[in-house]
Each structure stands twice: as structure tokens, then as C-alpha cells.
Design goal:
Oligomer: heterodimer
Largest interface: A-B, 64 and 72 residues
Largest sheet of chain B: none
Number of strands of chain B: 0
Structural class of chain A: alpha+beta
Number of helices of chain A: 13
Strand order of the largest sheet of chain A: 8-9-10-1-11-19-12
Radius of gyration of chain A: 25 Å
Order of helices and strands of chain B: HHHHHHHHHHHH
Strand content of chain A: 15-25%
Distance between the termini of chain A: 45 Å
Distance between the termini of chain B: 6 Å
Helix content of chain B: over 70%
Shape of chain B: globular
Number of strands of chain A: 21
Helix content of chain A: 25-40%
Radius of gyration of chain B: 24 Å
Number of helices of chain B: 12
Strand content of chain B: under 5%
Shape of chain A: globular
Chain lengths: ~500, ~325
């Protein structure tokens, strides 16, 4: 047995408790954990939220910004002006420098948007700029966007991740070493491991950023992320921990748990083009059969908010319709009988274990639907398969997924989208809302759309997936809510 | 011997060719479109079509395979769809993690298993043997990812001796690198060590029962010499066979441990590439790993001749 002591000795010698772990020394910066590594760092080429999580608002910024409260505020443009909602003139902030030292000027803005509108550049969201007719540089600090048609979301689209401003001489390196005007400069990318950003000393907002360096560490396994937090190897976990990990940390005085709102609506989508879900009575019956508070409690430990329609609570036009279709198994059975299914029916629920909350929600919902006679079998498929079979080919009965994009009610106006929901009335309301600029009138349209969705029940809106972040005590300034998929760390301090 | 080596080399090339076809076909018949995974659920059909053309995935399968094989033979494994970096460079950049990790796990396995197996065999059916077998049983029963998490809990979270994961790189010194890899190497080597303890014990017990061992003992040879010189060397052939196979399993097992310890190694590269349907990387890594395993098996076969001159290969 003597030999067993060898590895233990080796362990003790190499470990040498007198040498403290790196994280126990005063940190020169902030180390944050995220679950997914970006597939590239070019926001004008990929829609990936993992890319936005690192680059957006940290390395690159837009003319206007959605702040932590969801409000659109001037940013690289210190103000804007429009008299007719067709011509928007932006006045650039003076003295803003790119990380390569050159000053940001109006021709840069023109270049960026003309490049985004050019089909050759493969911008992921060309539709955001479809309304732009011309971009006129008036002087170095003044640029006017002339719109071909009214666009109610124009300013919002300029604040989105695809609208970041970068210097034209840095186009070639956008994917691997992006340059921008943000509070942090790109440092290094240890692929598979980390991305390091350094402080931008010339940042145009005085006093920011508050840390010298930010390191994003990619730890996909939630248990490993939890261990890294507890061992002090990371200062904060921004994405990846589930509610089951967070409840434990809420009791731990060393950590602050941030539970906030997001734009991520988790839905039970039904294939509106496939029987029996073609019948609105069946879809309503399914909605009545689902006990949403029980789903939220079981799948998310009660964290998140129950939804009644497809507008998230961070949206200014949000109407709380959570109680519009109450849990009522009796009514569900009655509706099913009316639709010709007195003994229920069989269906398959396709979910991807990549997102654990979808599987957990599914397991609870299967039990609830069973009580009204709907026999659902869960089929777990890998994420690539889900995208291909469910999302692209609409080959499914029911599925559960979170839709993270803000203002994604537009999906219901697309009859080819995987919901296969085809309502001319809804499409008309949506088109109208896109060109209605009066806030009150637009709000009315959004209220009508939300109520119409409740009535047509193309999906069951389950809950808003909460923002779950954990930081060690002393780390301050992390955004509580996520009105856009960004992790703005400019105001975060890493005090001990 | 030369003929044998030549035959093994031909088998090596044929195996790799089969692997290349298998990998190429398997990754493409799998449901799940790499373009959709890259573009994400919010992308519109035009973006998806443009991306598909840019990735060359709109061409016939045979054309894609032919091009890939032609380039691979020239040492060009293509460019990662995810990182936009040559696959060969990606693989090389991950070797400083995976190779030392596997080597350390193998060392751990040998250092633990050979002495314990030897001890158990020479103390068969005595308390020490039972204790060794209990240790082996625990090693077999504990999955490596769980062992990894327990090690992190003890040595990182509670004692604070090691980092919970990540790799600081070798540029900061050998000591820092070894520290980063020690816990995952132990977790990785534990199961294989348990297997090897049992294999060593069984092989040695069989040899210790042979007539020539009894003869050696009857001659009055010192027991230590009987065990090490007469018995152990002859017991090594099955042990080396098992250990060789285990080396391959250690490389495969690193996929899970690299995830648990957030190490930027080859296993994690492969896992991420499969999830993202990064076809060139999946193909490149699988070919590389398959080559390593075939090479290890080749080395094991050759080592038989060195261990046992009776073995004739021609």
C-alpha cells in the first residue's frame, strides 16, 4: 500500500498550500464566466448572442444605446433630430476615438451602414436597414439618414448589435480582433478558454470603465462554473447557471444573486398547420390545461414571470395578460370534446436538452396535459436537429423553446415561421404598427396584437426566462435586467 | 519483422482511410444542419442560403469529400467554420493541454496500478489484497466527471490549493502547467488505474502459479527476485495490451474531463465542434485522434517482441 502514498505526495508537493491560488490575490481586473464561446467576434456577420455577450457595448457601440432600463439614449451621437420621421439627423459626439487612435467621424457612420445594406457583406439583419434610402454626410460630425418609408423601429434598430460602428480600416479583423469605440479594447482570445479585454484609457465617457481588464472565461458545465465561483476563480457568472444552482448561492453570504427580467419568452409552440392544432379550440384547450405557476415552480424554482402573450415585460407596450386564460382542466376537456376529441389525442413534444428548462417544463406539461386526455410523448433531440427539423422544416406537433430576441412579435406575422400561424388580421395589425409613429396609436396596435394572440392561441406563452447572474460580494454595477442580449461591463467595479 | 511493420503500416493507412469516410458520412447523415446551427434561429432564409454557399455545403457530397481528402493529403485540413482559423493550427494549439493531460493520467495510472496490482497478487486473499480490490472497485464505480467534481470540491473550493479549472499555459512555467492539469489527470486516470490494478493482479496470479516459479522458489531464489524477474516480466504482455488500449481510452476520456475542468484541449474542441456542426474541425480532430490510437496500437504490437522473444511475427 506504500505506493498509494506516491500520488498523494505528488499532489501535496505540487499543490504546496503556501502558494495561494491566483484568484486569492488582489485581482487586476474582473473575471466573468459565460457558458458559450462566441463563434466569431464580428457582430456584422453573426447573430449569435454569445458574440454580443462579449463584444456588444464592451468593444463596440452604436449611435444610440438601449440603457439598462430599456430606454434608447444618445451615445456616439450626442443627439438626434427629426421633423418628419423620414429624415433623421445625428450629431456625433466630438473626440470619440476608435481603439486604433483615429477619431470617429460621420463618413465612418455612412460606411458602416452602407456596408450593412450591401447584400454582399452577409449582414445577419439586412431587414433592419431596409427603410434607409440615403445616408448624407453633412460635415465631419453630422450625418442624415433619409428613409424611404416610415419605420417605427428605426432608432431601436440603430441600437441593436448589428449596428455597431467600427473603422473601415479594421473590417478584415472584425471576426478575430474587433476594433471599436467601446470601454474595452480587444486583448487576446485563447480559443476554447478565454477572451481578455483591456481598459480603453481614451474612452469617451469619463470615469469609465472601472476595471483595468475583463476576462471572459468559457465554462459550459454549470457545475464547473459553480465550483469556479466558489473557489474564487471567477468574480461573476453572467450566463449558464440554472435556478437549481442559484437557490444555493442565495443563502451564501459571499455572493450576490441577481434575478432580473429579460426579453426571453419561453413558449409551448404548437404546429398550427398540423392536425389537431389547426383547430383553435384545441389550441385553447391546451392553453387551459397548462398550469403555468406549477411549470414555473417546477422548472425554474419559481424564478421568472408568467406570460400571457408574446410581449416581454421589458417592452414598453407590454400588457400583463398572464391571467387571461386561466388554468381550467374542465374547460379544456369541454373544448376538446367540442373540437371532436372527447377522448383526447396523441402528440409528440420535441425539445432540445441543450436548454434544460425546456425539458423540465416539458416533463411537467406532459403530466398536466395527460389530465385532460392529451397524451404527449417527449422526444429529446440535439440542438442541431431541433433547428433543422422543428425550426426550419416545421416538422413537429409541439415544442418548447425560449425566444430571446426583443420585439419578436413579428414572428407571428410570418405565416412561414415554424408556428405556421397564418392570421391576415394579425399581419395587418403588425404592418400597421411598423409604420405608426404616434406612441399612443402604436401602443393601441400592440395591445390589439397581444389580445388577438391570446384569442387565437397559436402558442402557450409560459414564462419569461429570468436573468440569473451571480457575483461575489464587492462586484457592483452588473445590469439587473437585460433589455438586449448584451453584457455591458463598463460600469462594473470589482471591489474586494 | 520488417514484413510485419510493413503490414502494420498498410493497415494503418487503410484504417485511416476508413475512418475518414466514416467520419465524413456520419457527420453529414446526422440530422442537424451546420448552417442553421451557425446562423441561429432568428436568421432569415436568405442569410442561411448565403452562408450555405459560403461554406461550400451546397455542392454534391462526393465533390466535398474528394476536395477534403485531396487537401488533407497535402496536410491541409481546412478552415474552422466557427473560428475562421486553419484546423491544423487549432489542433496544434490544443495539444499542449491534451497530450500532457493524457501523459499525466497515464503516469498516474501506471504509478498506482502496477504496484497495487503487484501487491494484491503477492498478498492474494489476504487483507491487503482485499483492500487493494476495494480501492479498484471504487475506482471502477466512480465516473470520471464525478471524481473530477469531488476533487474540485476538496482541493479547490475547500482547501484552495488548486484552481477549479482553466489552463494558465506553459509559458508561465512547468509548475503552473502541471498544477492546472494535475486534478483532471487524476480524475481521468482513476478509472483506468482501477482496470489496470485488476488486470495486473490477474495476470501475475496466473504466472505465480506456473511450474517455473515454483522451481525458482525451490532453488531458494529470493522472493522479491522471483516476483519481479521471473513472474512480473512474463505477466507484462496482457498488462501492456490492456495499458495500450487504455491510452486510447484516456484520449477519448479527456473530452469529458476537459469540459469539467474547462481546459482548452482537443476533447473540448471536438465537443464544441460537434455541437456547432463545425465539420472541418470534427473531421480533423477525429482523424488526428484515430491516427494517435492506431499509432499507439502499433507501438504496443512492436513492444510484444521486445518483451517476449518467443513471439514471431513473420
Amino acid at each position: 500500500m506504500r505506493s498509494a502514498a506516491v500520488p498523494l505526495c505528488l499532489l501535496l508537493v505540487v499543490a504546496n498550500p503556501s502558494v495561494r491560488p491566483v484568484a486569492a490575490q488582489p485581482a487586476p481586473g474582473l473575471v466573468v464566466q459565460v457558458a458559450a464561446e462566441p463563434p466569431g467576434l464580428d457582430l456584422t456577420a453573426t447573430p449569435a448572442s454569445a458574440t454580443a455577450g462579449v463584444v456588444f457595448y464592451n468593444i463596440q457601440e452604436c449611435l444610440v444605446k438601449v440603457d439598462r432600463h430599456g430606454k434608447i439614449v444618445p451615445w456616439l451621437a450626442e443627439r438626434w433630430h427629426t421633423s418628419d420621421n423620414r429624415n433623421y439627423t445625428f450629431f456625433l459626439k466630438r473626440g470619440v476615438r476608435f481603439h486604433n487612435g483615429r477619431e470617429l467621424k460621420a463618413p465612418d457612420v455612412k460606411f458602416v451602414f452602407e456596408r450593412a445594406m450591401n447584400p454582399e457583406t452577409k449582414h445577419p439583419y439586412p431587414g433592419y436597414y431596409a427603410a434607409i434610402g440615403d445616408i448624407i454626410v453633412k460635415d465631419d460630425y453630422t450625418v442624415t439618414f433619409a428613409l424611404k418609408s416610415l419605420n417605427a423601429n428605426f432608432l431601436l434598430n440603430l441600437a441593436r448589435q448589428g449596428s455597431v460602428i467600427y473603422p473601415k480600416e479594421a473590417v478584415e479583423t472584425l471576426k478575430s480582433a474587433p476594433v471599436g469605440t467601446g470601454p474595452f479594447r480587444f486583448g487576446e482570445w485563447g480559443r476554447g478558454d478565454r477572451i481578455v479585454l483591456g481598459r480603453n484609457a481614451d474612452y469617451h465617457v469619463k470615469g469609465l470603465p472601472k476595471v483595468e481588464r475583463v476576462t471572459f472565461r468559457f465554462i459550459a458545465d454549470p457545475n464547473a462554473a459553480l465550483a469556479a465561483l466558489k473557489a474564487g476563480d471567477v468574480d461573476a457568472s453572467l450566463f449558464g447557471l440554472g435556478p437549481e444552482h442559484v437557490t444555493d448561492l442565495q443563502k451564501d453570504p459571499r455572493f450576490t444573486v441577481i434575478v432580473g427580467d429579460t426579453t426571453n419568452d419561453v413558449i409551448l409552440a404548437m404546429n398550427n398547420a398540423r392536425k389537431p392544432f389547426t383547430d383553435v379550440r384545441v389550441r385553447r384547450a391546451v392553453t387551459h390545461a397548462v398550469d403555468k405557476p406549477e411549470v414555473l415552480k417546477g422548472a425554474m424554482f419559481g424564478m421568472g414571470r408568467i406570460l400571457g402573450s408574446n410581449v416581454d415585460p421589458l417592452n414598453p407596450y407590454f400588457v400583463d395578460l398572464a391571467g387571461a386564460v386561466p388554468h381550467d382542466p374542465g374547460k379544456a376537456r369541454k373544448l376538446l370534446a367540442e373540437a371532436g376529441y372527447p377522448n383526447g389525442f396523441d402528440a409528440v413534444l420535441r425539445v432540445s436538452p441543450q436548454y434544460q428548462y425546456t425539458v423540465r417544463s416539458g416533463e411537467i406539461i406532459v403530466g398536466q396535459l395527460q389530465k385532460v386526455g392529451v397524451r404527449v410523448r417527449i422526444e429529446q433531440i440535439e440542438w442541431g436537429q431541433w433547428l433543422s427539423r422543428v425550426w426550419k422544416d416545421a416538422d413537429y406537433d409541439v415544442t418548447i423553446i425560449g425566444h430571446a430576441e426583443a420585439w419578436d412579435i413579428s414572428n407571428y406575422a410570418n405565416p412561414k415561421y415554424y408556428y405556421q400561424y397564418d392570421s391576415p388580421r394579425f399581419q395587418e395589425l403588425f404592418q400597421k404598427s411598423e409604420v405608426t409613429l404616434d406612441d399612443k396609436a402604436r401602443r393601441d396596435l400592440y395591445v390589439q396584437m397581444q389580445r388577438l394572440l391570446v384569442a387565437d392561441a397559436p402558442a402557450v406563452w409560459l414564462f419569461m426566462h429570468p436573468r440569473l447572474a451571480v457575483a461575489r460580494k464587492g462586484v457592483q454595477g452588473i445590469w439587473k435586467d437585460l433589455p438586449l442580449p448584451a453584457s455591458d461591463l463598463s460600469e462594473v467595479s470589482a471591489g474586494r | 519483422m520488417r514484413g510485419y511493420v510493413l503490414r502494420r503500416l498498410v493497415a494503418f493507412v487503410v484504417t485511416l482511410a476508413c475512418v475518414s469516410v466514416l467520419v465524413f458520412v456520419a457527420i453529414r447523415v446526422l440530422p442537424g444542419d451546420p448552417v442553421l446551427v451557425m446562423a441561429g434561429p432568428e436568421a432569415n432564409p436568405e442569410v442561411v442560403a448565403r452562408l450555405r454557399a459560403a461554406m461550400g455545403l451546397d455542392r454534391p457530397l462526393l465533390v466535398q469529400y474528394g476536395e477534403w481528402l485531396g487537401r488533407a493529403l497535402r496536410g491541409d485540413l481546412g478552415v474552422s467554420l466557427q473560428y475562421d482559423v486553419p484546423v491544423g493550427r487549432l489542433i496544434v494549439s490544443r495539444l499542449p493541454v491534451t497530450l500532457p493531460l493524457t501523459a499525466m493520467a497515464a503516469l498516474f495510472m501506471l504509478v498506482v496500478a502496477l504496484p497495487l496490482g503487484l501487491y494484491a497478487a503477492t498478498h492474494a486473499r489476504r487483507p491487503g489484497d482485499y483492500l487493494a480490490m476495494i480501492v479498484a472497485q471504487i475506482g471502477l464505480a466512480v465516473p470520471s466527471f464525478w471524481a473530477g467534481l469531488l476533487l474540485i470540491l476538496l482541493f479547490s473550493v475547500h482547501l484552495g490549493w488548486f484552481r477549479s479549472g482553466g489552463f494558465e499555459g506553459w509559458t508561465q512555467g512547468v509548475r503552473v502547467g502541471v498544477r492546472s492539469l494535475l486534478l483532471p489527470a487524476i480524475a481521468l486516470g482513476l478509472f483506468q488505474a482501477a482496470v489496470l490494478i485488476r488486470a495486473t493482479r490477474a495476470a501475475l496470479l496466473e504466472v505465480l502459479g506456473e511450474d517455473y516459479v515454483r522451481t525458482a522458489r525451490a532453488k531458494g531464489v529470493w522472493e522479491g527476485l522471483v516476483v519481479v524477474k521471473h513472474a512480473f516480466r512474463n505477466a507484462l504482455i496482457p498488462v501492456v495490451t490492456v495499458a495500450g488500449l487504455q491510452l486510447g481510452q484516456l484520449i477519448a476520456g479527456s473530452i469529458i474531463l476537459e469540459s469539467v475542468f474547462a481546459l482548452p484541449g482537443l476533447g473540448r474542441l471536438a465537443l464544441g465542434a460537434i455541437t456547432a456542426r463545425d465539420l472541418p474541425v470534427v473531421q480533423g480532430v477525429t482523424l488526428f485522434v484515430a491516427s494517435c490510437i492506431v499509432a499507439i496500437n502499433f507501438a504496443v504490437d512492436v513492444s510484444y517482441a521486445l518483451l517476449d522473444p518467443r513471439i514471431r511475427y513473420d
